[in-house]
Design goal:
- This protein is of the alpha+beta class.
- The protein has helices spanning 26-39, 90-93, 95-104, and strands spanning 11-14, 17-20, 50-51, 55-56, 60-64, 67-69, 72-74, 116-122, 128-131, 142-148, 150-155, 166-170, 175-178, 187-193, 206-212.
- The strands form four sheets. It has a seven-stranded antiparallel beta sheet, with helices on one face. It has a four-stranded antiparallel beta sheet with strand order 9-14-11-12, with no helix packed on it. It has a two-stranded antiparallel sheet with strand order 3-4.
- Its cofactor is Fe(2+).
- GO terms for molecular function: broad specificity oxidative DNA demethylase activity; ferrous iron binding; oxidative RNA demethylase activity.
Length: 217
């Protein structure tokens, strides 16, 4: 946000969990938004995710590299149109190590290759319950990029969905990385703040791009 009294600064939210404000500049945000719109088109495009037991995620999702479904990965959109998942774009994969270096001040372990991206679209009323990213065989840090409307991101502990947790405001262009002892921490999005996206971006709602290392062979 322009004209703030105090600039937002890099903040360690928990051991291994780091918030880097304004990591993506306006031009890069617009480029990623255009890419997301391409990725969201069929086949294997944006879909509604149904949870075992009958629940439905209010945020819609498209996957790259491997297709996530509750609770595993596949090479086709097994809970969508069944089409082969779109490949992980090299330029998107390259953001993973760069993001880790920006958050931690050092690159990830040699050989770390970000090969999965989950793109979630949040409307004004969308939420994401507390959950862990635990379907990967790699312990490499998770990289989260925000575009569009601001959200309240709730980052918790590794033992339960309840307290202690900390709420962080993630705005368009912000980076959040969590790994090390926080890699399996519960986290979620209790609220999206409609109408807070940058005017020049051209997006109503919020996009979250999550980069992961599958380690799944």
């Amino acid at each position: 946000m322009d004209g703030e009294l105090f600039p937002r600064e890099r903040t360690v939210i928990a051991p291994g969990a780091v918030h880097v404000p304004d990591w993506l500049g306006p031009d890069r945000q617009r480029e990623l938004l255009a890419d997301c719109r391409d990725w969201a088109r069929p086949p294997a495009g944006l879909r509604t995710v149904r949870i075992p037991g009958g629940g439905v995620m209010s945020a819609r999702q498209v996957c790259l590299g491997l297709h996530w479904y509750p609770y595993g990965y596949a090479r086709t959109a097994v809970d969508g149109d069944g089409a082969p998942v779109k490949p992980m774009p090299p330029e998107l994969a390259a953001l993973g190590p760069a993001a880790v270096a920006a958050a931690y001040g050092r690159p990830p372990e040699p050989g770390t290759a970000y090969d999965i991206a989950l793109v979630n679209f949040y409307g004004a009323d969308s939420r994401m319950g507390m959950h862990r990213d635990a379907d990967e065989d790699s312990t490499a840090p998770v990289v989260s990029l925000s575009l569009g409307d601001t959200c309240v991101f709730r980052f918790g502990n590794t033992l339960s969905r309840g307290r202690p947790y900390r709420d962080v405001e993630l705005r368009s262009g912000d980076l959040f990385v969590f790994g090390e002892s926080s890699r399996l921490a519960y986290h979620g999005v209790p609220k999206v703040l409609p109408g807070t996206a940058p005017q020049g971006l051209g997006l109503t709602g919020r996009l979250n791009i999550t980069l992961r290392v599958g380690g799944l062979g």
